[in-house]
Amino acid sequence: MRPANKLKLSFAIFILLCLFSYLDRPFPNSKTVYDSVPLPATTESNLQASFEFLSADKKNAQSWSLPDYINSVTAEHPQKTGAYILENGFEALLARAWLADHATKSIEVQYFIWSNDNIGTLASEALIRAANRGVKVRVIVDDLLIEAEDKTILALAKHPNVEIRIYNPKHRVGTNIGKRLWNIVADFKSANQRMHDKTFVVDGLVAITGGRNMASEYFNFHHESNFRDRDLLILGSAVTKVGDNFNNFWQHPLSVPVETIFAEHRFMQASPEISNQEVANIYQQLHAYANLDSNFDPLLKQAIRSIPESFERLSKEIVWTDVEFIHDIPGKNRSADLQGGGDSTRALATLVDQAQQEILIQSPYLVLSDKAIAMIKRSLERGVKITINTNSLASTDNLQAFSGYRNQREELLKMGVKIFEFRPDAGSRGKLLNSPVIDKYKPAVFSLHAKSMVIDNKIAYVGTFNFDPRSENLNTEVGVIIHNQQLAEQLVQAIKQDIQPGNSWNAELDDPDQHVSYSKRFQVWLMQLLPLRPIL
């Protein structure tokens, strides 16, 4: 990138940051979702008492062991990985909740977003309950979109069985707005390099990865807007590699213990000290929040309790096959500019270059680099049919990313790429958005967030990779490549259902932009004028 363009880019981002940091998401120290929960009466002032309080509902007499069952199943399929696609958000939530409740040794979670909303709060409480059973809990969260109050993060990390590390902490945790802006100006590349990984590993035996972050809208629990997303549950051989990748990030200097962050930035903020009484209060508030039926619906609790009866049925639906877990190194690459690619980028590019008949892509954000466009052209010249499902202007949650796509849409259509843009009122909402919460409210807006690809109806990818320059060059990504025709065809069926006329508009024929206001179209037009492409 020429210095002049880099200067323009930096200035544009500086202005956008000043605007969107106030309009988009709250800074740390905003109130948490459970602040209004009445605090149970307590006179205890030590941590042990608060742990015992939260351990009151633990089950000491479990006759069924998750590790024993998984070990017995995987023993029947040596060197293979069992895979099960989690299409429905409610199902994906149940799987995580039940696995957390049945963990015996360890829970390792890695997320880009961990919200302080209903689901984020319930997830935090579930991890504390697991820790009270003696389960070792390790959490890595990217710094950019953390919403929790600083003291809440510190309180969670105070548990003797819980460790929390923040990836590349240059934006939120322990950082005021002045320091944040300085980080962007002084080290633009590093400040933009984020950990987009999303993995959930229990006892080193079972893992979930895919597009879902830890927030209500990813699990059908938001009252107004939810994501059509996708995860993959895996058992067996590939789980070890997921755990190895977690450890690589855990041990890397970019993943910083929360205690270290606050100690190093003590002079820039109010005292980060937290008393044992405050820790006990926060734990009790979490537990009280989770015990309210208005927050943790009884139907959800019953569904979690019912999982053991259906787990053996589910395990029979798992497909055992060859699976490749792909990932990036911490930091993505060693390039000094905004390029450089990564291991996940190269793995997916190899799949595209190997395609002989058809490529089917589902990505919420579609902004192609020059290299990606050249790769698409080569595939089309080989006679490969390319179909892409992405968000429409009416459904997108990211106007900046849509502006980049809008700059390329006509070019892609003229090249011969078939593009279908997701509708916010997709007819599939009824099937994919069923949950105890959503069923009580009017239909929520539906937005695409699944990141998947199928090659020649026989190789499938499910992961975190968006088809944009940010995933290509800046953010670390993970995903699973499945060499199995049965699962590939299952994924094809799901994506082709999403591009049906009732669920998506044909970008070439339907003029999807007409369904939004002139003001929204004007906002996107202004963004199209900015040199944002390298960081979209």
From TrEMBL:
One of its GO terms (molecular function) is phosphatidyltransferase activity. GO terms for biological process: cardiolipin biosynthetic process. Residues 191-218, 444-471 form the PLD phosphodiesterase domain. InterPro entries: PLD-like_dom, PLipase_D/transphosphatidylase. PROSITE patterns: PLD. Pfam families: PLDc_2. This is Phospholipase D family protein.
